[in-house]
């Protein structure tokens, strides 16, 4: 049941399936009184500090973009100022930010759906078909996850031009599906491995075909796994810069591409790029808060345990 | 909590947060900047929906022309598309779109420096016949002949000039007045001024030049070489002059400025130098004129009202300045799919008299008689700069050689290569390229 | 499962992999033996591109820079990720909020995050952190233009972007460590350090391996972070292999697609070598399962 190193002397008890994991475990309070309280205080303080450090680039950017333009980047930096939202207003009025954002979301959602649509059955097949071909596929999926973008995307640039789909969302989606799909197989395979084969056999005795077993029996059981893989696929696609940079010109740039092309600008455009970063960041922060519990649950239930 | 219910509500929340952002402030409306003029753009529209894609980097001097074109020529079924992009992005997209039989862009922003190479490779459409046909309608005869000349290669016009950009020195008048300094006319004077500014404790690193190691630094070297009376190459003998005494002087001149420039100056492109001036962390800067108007806008800087302008100094005295003139214009790629007449009318309308006027004072329009002291705070500096510029080198190999020697110049300025070694390497790189053109 | 069923289920996925990954890869390999410009057919030049790559000192420097960055970042991610995960895992009600906050750097696109990062260190753009460091220590450090300070900034940025992922995976792994085992070790009188090193760490070995795997994959391909953070990467030896490819095949009108492709191929080989232990693990395990 281990994924990688073949470590076998693992956790002792079988790892519970997702439904159990989502339940808060009853925790025993360790004895210790005063000392424990002090330690908890220290741990809390330390974590607060870490959180602050991890968020500081975002917080500083939030300050930069709400400053008046003339002091946005002065040195030494100014810490007090009258906040204004002008950079956001200008961004919205003078650029097509709305369409960049919708391009980004559409590309991310569609490519995630396709990656899962391809990845789920493939992962299921891999988990039930012990043969050399499964080994080859899995190793290939691993290597494909690690390919340098240029090796794939520059030829895609050429190919998409000759197919006439260059500079469309279709080209970006196709590229992202190709790039992300191998990893979804990789994440999902272990969830399937967790589900006992007897279940398949029982369902097939009832007259289900393999495809029916997958959709009627496996997928409902795989909720947390598919959700986990989906969240990762979405994040990868949402963040992708090089692929969208190389495969788009005027019709479907994504927000990361837009922001990157604004980095070589002067004020006030540079401040607008900062505003764009914040507008892009806020929804994904909400996403992070919601996603974290599913990720922990999903990941511990299947994909990567030792 | 059951898994399925919480999952659904979570997804709903994510979806809601995304749509909130997408629609929260109403649909994004694209309004062109204030500088865009509304002008006549009377092309014969083709039947059916047509996209015209324009590639032009954003800067306050190019934007007026681009915005005018987008605003005036988008009508009916014809849409003129322009996406924001920085200069490095434009360079990269230009290469990509001109390669092969088809490209994305129908109209591209070009400049005199790259015209010879692109024209020699046959990547641009010659415009002479179109000028003959539409010249009267758009008053193209008022476009400065020298500037048209700069966009001409082998007797044919490949770019319709919109504006000229020349190097200009911007300096902090308040500091200069306080210390009784005069705008420097040579590098030695500039260093003197910088020393005094440093000594007075006004600014730690008074001089700011864009010396970005991967790009701008070669422009600086070229400007210094030109001011010393030397060209990069000699087209008659087809040899490079990069190991000449003047080349040595040019490199040493750049090195001599280093103590007075920010130690990270080789990471600065023009926007970064603008930022230094905005921040008050430099007192003297030399950049292309298209960057100057930004410095005078109070919205950008607290020091906006303290900026003054002069022609750049010469390196060693004499009448030729540390300078270069770049003519910006519009070109039509040879592989553009749309009707060339329509495209030409679009770019003509964007350089028409009304449109050119709207670009003032940010740009120095290509039309004669537009620039006056009233219309532009740095008009005198600009005119002097144009008058004393080193001769241009409109050869197809100029851009290629510049790219090839950029890292070597950077290493010399960074002190990683000695001047002598650097010159040897530059010379051999350049001669290698020249042999391909013999 | 029968062969036919396998084909039906895995077929579409394999088809996409072949069509959209293998074919482009083949094109890249083809280009690596050619002198080629965008949009025009290339001409065969044998091993010239590979020879050029190996004789260019920039390539060697890029490989060394990339590999060392990868090793350092991976080591930091494992240690810091583990410590952070243990701390977070010990929380009760605050846990989801802390996790959510800590995940923020991971969900921001790298190029955007690196830009935010650059505004902390670049004095020309505010540079609040470089300013504070100078105030506190008196040292004027050239974060953007000197080799080692810039390496510190780049490493910090990459760690900042990836630490949340490492922590998340390890937190997930810790859910599988049974309380009984920990209790037993405590009864045996194990110190906290021993408890972690000889009980918990070994039992989540696979998880740590996964973190190392992903970290190696991603850091070897560092590109986005360098664009805003190292404007003169070439001159100060902080050019990653990916940035080197970009510079020769794309930047400044550069068109050397053949050389770029040859380096792509070499980079893939390097990645496969680095991943070899993991590949062998996967192969062994799949055959067993």
TrEMBL record, chain A:
<protein>
    <submittedName>
        <fullName>Carbohydrate ABC transporter membrane protein 2, CUT1 family (TC 3.A.1.1.-)</fullName>
    </submittedName>
</protein>
<feature type="transmembrane region" description="Helical">
    <location>
        <begin position="213"/>
        <end position="238"/>
    </location>
</feature>
<feature type="transmembrane region" description="Helical">
    <location>
        <begin position="37"/>
        <end position="60"/>
    </location>
</feature>
<dbReference type="GO" id="GO:0005886">
    <property type="term" value="C:plasma membrane"/>
</dbReference>
<dbReference type="InterPro" id="IPR000515">
    <property type="entry name" value="MetI-like"/>
</dbReference>
<keyword id="KW-1133">Transmembrane helix</keyword>
<keyword id="KW-0472">Membrane</keyword>
<feature type="transmembrane region" description="Helical">
    <location>
        <begin position="132"/>
        <end position="150"/>
    </location>
</feature>
<keyword id="KW-0812">Transmembrane</keyword>
<feature type="transmembrane region" description="Helical">
    <location>
        <begin position="170"/>
        <end position="192"/>
    </location>
</feature>
<comment type="similarity">
    <text>Belongs to the binding-protein-dependent transport system permease family.</text>
</comment>
<keyword id="KW-0813">Transport</keyword>
<feature type="transmembrane region" description="Helical">
    <location>
        <begin position="273"/>
        <end position="296"/>
    </location>
</feature>
<dbReference type="GO" id="GO:0055085">
    <property type="term" value="P:transmembrane transport"/>
</dbReference>
<feature type="domain" description="ABC transmembrane type-1">
    <location>
        <begin position="101"/>
        <end position="291"/>
    </location>
</feature>
Automatic annotation (TrEMBL), chain B:
<dbReference type="InterPro" id="IPR050490">
    <property type="entry name" value="Bact_solute-bd_prot1"/>
</dbReference>
<protein>
    <submittedName>
        <fullName>Carbohydrate ABC transporter substrate-binding protein, CUT1 family (TC 3.A.1.1.-)</fullName>
    </submittedName>
</protein>
<keyword id="KW-0732">Signal</keyword>
<feature type="signal peptide">
    <location>
        <begin position="1"/>
        <end position="27"/>
    </location>
</feature>
<dbReference type="InterPro" id="IPR006059">
    <property type="entry name" value="SBP"/>
</dbReference>
<dbReference type="Pfam" id="PF01547">
    <property type="entry name" value="SBP_bac_1"/>
</dbReference>
From TrEMBL, chain C:
<feature type="transmembrane region" description="Helical">
    <location>
        <begin position="152"/>
        <end position="174"/>
    </location>
</feature>
<dbReference type="Pfam" id="PF00528">
    <property type="entry name" value="BPD_transp_1"/>
</dbReference>
<protein>
    <submittedName>
        <fullName>Multiple sugar transport system permease protein</fullName>
    </submittedName>
</protein>
<dbReference type="GO" id="GO:0055085">
    <property type="term" value="P:transmembrane transport"/>
</dbReference>
<feature type="transmembrane region" description="Helical">
    <location>
        <begin position="97"/>
        <end position="121"/>
    </location>
</feature>
<feature type="transmembrane region" description="Helical">
    <location>
        <begin position="7"/>
        <end position="26"/>
    </location>
</feature>
<feature type="domain" description="ABC transmembrane type-1">
    <location>
        <begin position="63"/>
        <end position="280"/>
    </location>
</feature>
<keyword id="KW-0813">Transport</keyword>
<feature type="transmembrane region" description="Helical">
    <location>
        <begin position="195"/>
        <end position="217"/>
    </location>
</feature>
<dbReference type="GO" id="GO:0005886">
    <property type="term" value="C:plasma membrane"/>
</dbReference>
<keyword id="KW-0472">Membrane</keyword>
<keyword id="KW-1133">Transmembrane helix</keyword>
<comment type="similarity">
    <text>Belongs to the binding-protein-dependent transport system permease family.</text>
</comment>
<dbReference type="InterPro" id="IPR000515">
    <property type="entry name" value="MetI-like"/>
</dbReference>
<feature type="transmembrane region" description="Helical">
    <location>
        <begin position="257"/>
        <end position="279"/>
    </location>
</feature>
């Amino acid at each position: 049941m281990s994924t990688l190193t073949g470590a076998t002397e693992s956790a002792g008890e079988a790892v519970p399936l997702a439904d159990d994991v989502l339940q808060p475990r009853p925790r025993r309070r360790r004895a210790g009184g005063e000392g424990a309280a002090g330690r908890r205080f220290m741990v809390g303080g330390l974590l607060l500090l870490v959180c602050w450090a991890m968020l500081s680039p975002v917080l500083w950017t939030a300050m930069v973009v709400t400053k008046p333009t003339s002091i946005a980047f002065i040195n030494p930096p100014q810490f007090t100022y009258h906040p204004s939202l002008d950079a956001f207003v200008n961004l919205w009025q003078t650029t097509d930010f709305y369409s960049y954002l919708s391009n980004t979301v559409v590309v991310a959602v569609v490519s995630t759906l396709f990656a899962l649509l391809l990845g789920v059955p493939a992962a299921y097949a891999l988990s039930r078909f012990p043969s050399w071909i499964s080994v080859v596929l899995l190793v290939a999926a691993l290597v494909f996850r690690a390919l340098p973008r240029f090796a794939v995307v520059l030829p895609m640039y050429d190919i998409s031009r000759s197919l006439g789909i260059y500079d469309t969302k279709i080209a970006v989606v196709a590229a992202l599906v190709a790039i992300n799909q191998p990893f979804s197989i990789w994440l999902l395979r272990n969830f399937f491995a967790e589900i006992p084969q007897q279940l398949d056999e029982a369902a097939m005795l009832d007259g289900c075909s393999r495809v029916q077993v997958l959709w009627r029996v496996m997928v409902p059981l795989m909720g947390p796994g598919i959700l986990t893989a989906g969240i990762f696929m979405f994040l990868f696609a949402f963040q992708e810069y090089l692929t969208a940079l190389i495969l788009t010109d005027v019709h479907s740039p994504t927000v990361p591409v837009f922001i990157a092309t604004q980095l070589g600008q002067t004020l006030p455009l540079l401040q607008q790029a900062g505003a764009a970063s914040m507008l892009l960041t806020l929804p994904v922060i909400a996403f992070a808060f919601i996603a974290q519990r599913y990720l922990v649950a999903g990941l511990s239930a299947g994909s990567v345990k030792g | 909590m059951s898994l399925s219910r919480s999952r659904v509500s979570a997804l709903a929340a994510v979806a809601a947060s995304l749509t909130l952002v997408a629609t929260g402030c109403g649909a994004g409306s694209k309004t062109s900047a204030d500088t865009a003029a509304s002008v006549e753009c009377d092309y014969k529209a083709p039947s059916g929906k047509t996209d015209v894609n324009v590639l032009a980097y954003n800067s306050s001097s190019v934007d007026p022309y681009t915005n005018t074109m987008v605003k005036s020529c988008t009508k009916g079924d014809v849409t003129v598309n322009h996406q924001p992009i920085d200069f490095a992005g434009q360079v990269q997209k230009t290469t990509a779109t001109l390669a092969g039989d088809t490209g994305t862009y129908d109209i591209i922003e070009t400049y005199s420096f790259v015209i010879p190479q692109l024209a020699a490779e046959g990547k641009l459409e010659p415009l002479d016949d179109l000028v003959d046909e539409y010249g009267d309608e758009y008053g193209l005869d008022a476009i400065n002949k020298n500037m048209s000349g700069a966009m001409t290669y082998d007797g044919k016009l490949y770019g319709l000039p919109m504006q000229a950009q020349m190097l200009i020195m911007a300096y902090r008048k308040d500091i200069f007045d306080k210390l009784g300094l005069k705008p420097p006319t040579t590098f030695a004077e500039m260093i003197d001024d910088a020393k005094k500014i440093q000594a007075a404790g006004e600014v730690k690193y008074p001089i700011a030049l864009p010396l970005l190691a991967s790009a701008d630094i070669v422009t600086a070297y070229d400007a210094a070489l030109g001011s010393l009376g030397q060209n990069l190459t000699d087209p008659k003998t087809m040899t490079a002059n990069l190991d000449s005494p003047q080349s040595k002087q040019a490199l040493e001149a750049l090195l001599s400025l280093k103590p007075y420039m920010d130690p990270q100056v080789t990471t600065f492109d023009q926007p970064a130098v603008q930022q230094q001036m905005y921040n008050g962390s430099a007192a003297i800067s030399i950049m292309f004129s298209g960057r100057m108007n930004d410095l005078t806008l109070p919205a950008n800087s607290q020091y906006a009202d303290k900026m003054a302008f002069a022609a750049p100094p010469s390196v060693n005295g004499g009448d030729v300045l540390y300078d270069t003139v770049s003519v910006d214009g519009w070109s039509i790629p040879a592989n553009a799919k749309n009707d060339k007449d329509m495209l030409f009318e679009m770019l003509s309308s964007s350089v028409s008299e009304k449109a050119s006027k709207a670009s003032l004072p940010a740009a120095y329009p290509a039309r004669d008689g537009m620039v006056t002291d009233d219309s532009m705070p740095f008009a005198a500096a600009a005119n002097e700069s144009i008058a004393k510029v080193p001769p241009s080198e409109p050869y197809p190999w100029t851009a290629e050689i510049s790219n090839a020697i950029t890292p070597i110049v950077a290493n010399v300025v960074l002190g990683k290569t000695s001047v002598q070694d650097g010159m040897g390497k530059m010379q051999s790189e350049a001669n290698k390229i020249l042999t391909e053109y013999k | 499962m029968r062969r036919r069923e396998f084909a039906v289920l895995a077929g579409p996925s394999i088809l996409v992999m072949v069509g959209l990954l293998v074919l482009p890869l083949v094109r890249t390999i083809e280009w690596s033996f050619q002198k080629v410009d965008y949009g025009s057919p290339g001409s065969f030049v044998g091993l010239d591109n590979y020879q050029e790559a190996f004789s260019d000192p920039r390539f060697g420097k890029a490989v060394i820079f990339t590999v060392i960055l990868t090793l350092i970042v991976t080591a930091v991610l494992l240690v810091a990720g583990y410590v952070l995960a243990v701390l977070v895992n010990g929380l009760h009600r605050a846990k989801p909020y802390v996790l959510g906050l800590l995940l923020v750097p991971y969900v921001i696109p790298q190029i955007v995050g690196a830009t935010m990062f650059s505004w902390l260190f670049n004095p020309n753009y505010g540079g609040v952190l470089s300013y504070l460091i100078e105030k506190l220590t008196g040292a004027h450090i050239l974060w953007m233009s000197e080799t080692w300070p810039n390496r510190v900034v780049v490493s910090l940025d990459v760690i900042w972007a990836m630490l949340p992922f490492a922590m998340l995976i390890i937190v997930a792994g810790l859910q599988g460590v049974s309380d009984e085992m920990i209790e037993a070790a405590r009864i045996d009188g194990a110190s906290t350090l021993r408890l972690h090193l000889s009980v918990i760490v070994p039992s989540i070995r696979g998880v740590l391996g996964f973190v190392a795997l992903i970290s190696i994959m991603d850091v070897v391909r560092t590109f986005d972070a360098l664009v805003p953070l190292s404007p003169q990467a070439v001159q100060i030896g902080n050019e990653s292999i990916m940035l080197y490819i970009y510079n020769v095949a794309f930047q400044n009108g550069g068109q050397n697609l053949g050389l770029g492709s040859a380096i792509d191929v070499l980079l893939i080989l390097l990645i496969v070598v680095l991943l070899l232990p993991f590949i062998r693990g996967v192969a062994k395990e799949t055959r067993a399962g």
